[in-house]
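Record format v2
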Amino acid sequence: MSLSYESSGVNYDQLDAFKRACQKAARTTAPLLEQHGYSEPATTRGESAYLMEADDHFLAHVEEGLGTKNLVADVVYKQTGKNFYREIAIDTVATMVNDLITCGALPISIAMHAAVGESAWFTDEKRMNSLVEGWAHACKKSNAVWGGGETPTLRGIVNAETIVLAGSAIGKISPKSLRITGEVRDGDQIVFLASSGVQTNGLTLCRKIADQLPQGYQTPIGFGDTRTYGEALLAPSVIYVEFVRECQQRGIPLNYVAHVTGHGWRKLMRLEEPFVYEIANMRPAPALFQFLEKAGPITTKEMYATFNQGVGFAAYVSPDVLEATLDAARSAGYDAWHAGSVKKESTRKAVTIPSLGLAYEGDTLQVR
Amino acid sequence: MSLSYESSGVNYDQLDAFKRACQKAARTTAPLLEQHGYSEPATTRGESAYLMEADDHFLAHVEEGLGTKNLVADVVYKQTGKNFYREIAIDTVATMVNDLITCGALPISIAMHAAVGESAWFTDEKRMNSLVEGWAHACKKSNAVWGGGETPTLRGIVNAETIVLAGSAIGKISPKSLRITGEVRDGDQIVFLASSGVQTNGLTLCRKIADQLPQGYQTPIGFGDTRTYGEALLAPSVIYVEFVRECQQRGIPLNYVAHVTGHGWRKLMRLEEPFVYEIANMRPAPALFQFLEKAGPITTKEMYATFNQGVGFAAYVSPDVLEATLDAARSAGYDAWHAGSVKKESTRKAVTIPSLGLAYEGDTLQVR
């Protein structure tokens, strides 16, 4: 039997009922912005960042968490003595700021939330210092200040040997014309930016696979990659802030961008308006994903529906700025390529990968 | 033997080493604000909210968490069927916004972080809906929008039966003259605003006391109060946003304010500059605190060093606006009174309570 994300134990239905209740209640608070000189843009709920509109700027607010990736770092640390908490901190910041920039906001301030079950977690100075160093490094990569945080001991809530890593980011769009509004058009071109691995997404399933392997995280992944499974999983996430900033500075309008996280490539159709996103220029999935597909085993269809498959960020641009976008991404240091195009096919919403015979219809993605 | 907060199992030394490492690294990121048109005010690190200064406003950022109070709600819910998750949500928002307003910022946007160990936590619709309703209510009391959030399932990190509740708030000070700068002067008067009970602080110790009581949270607290221990603990925190807003609207300058949380009344000397804060007009501690003192037993000195003792918020004002401040607080619906005065005694920093023969010197509070 092949594995799927549902079978790894995360029940999205139960979570989604809560999310829907939150969104419904949250909407009733929108009028409170007025006294502060802000208002809520009509389409911001359900996007990756919450936006507030003033006369001459937008503020953006993101609260995000790492998920369970640090459990992988914990096992690898115990087994090999190799401490990946610098990478884990970068992951945590990346997951926030990569969400924030999807509206065109650049992060100004990042706060840490680090909740432990026992304060003894911090007695390992090597691990503690790696976490601090990684967090500061990631703030610098994001061009944002590390603006405080919260580090509670939650005995009886958080397991003694672990840590909950999360945080929040404040961003700003100024001038307002730099907002990424989602004005995608038929014929827009799709640019992909490479990921460094699974980044922060699908880790529950990855941990389940480790449990099945005789060598666990020490298994070499092969497929031309000399790293172990643990090392490959713990490669730190790419921070895409410089890509958005570079495009803004060069005057390249980004019609929409997607941070490819939970739901894998289905996230490419996050935009509410229906389009068909055809990925015609496929790169082979990086070694880690080939390893996961085989080790699960996981069907190819489930792989692209769950993992980023080597693609961490996508941008949709007008054909006349396609080359300029690729050039901006590359000069900012990203591995970027032209991946496909956007088509209007009446009310159909889908992500299609013709060379693999795969198609994901809109009803397979519920994020609003 | 009497109980103390340290004996309840929270080791501040281990935590503080981490906090100090964070603050040191965070300071190196301050120059990154410049490109966004902001700078870091010299004295913001170590205060309850992180501030960023622009030409015509300040932005404020807070990341905060509830602590372990929901464990009390969980036990009471199991024992009595009475669900206090509406109150727990209010507590979580209160702990953020009451920190935020200490710099004079009014909250604009509040994001939720709710991490569970199992998504099944949300199958209890009554509890889930109470949490959502309380959060929205608290945002409205804070005049802030509920701007999104994050609700991960962290199996293996968060215990299956519990939830980590936290979040972040964005605030703004505009015009800049409304900033609360900490310009306290010899002879300033101290105004206290009542709390509703322990609010969100000292709960680890409160839970330990419940374990010692034959009737646990069902114990009537007495001292003229008919509630049970559980009910009294779970009274929702007071949100002090309207007090600060009312003072701002009436043009009353607040020289400094303190959100009385961890470290109890020692928080009254949070300001870096040394002063002696003499609390001459004492109200008896509310019934819940008398109960705690007796049940612990806890020495009176430890009580005031740990709990808010009926005082959730303090403001330091010039004598000529003392009456105006009291009037502003009362018309905004708060129970407020004139509690004492601030004295300059060379380099001495202390909180003194002459009628109880108590004094806390500055070296007993390390929050920077």
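The longest strand of chain B covers residues 106-116.
Residues 125-141 of chain B form the longest helix (17 residues).
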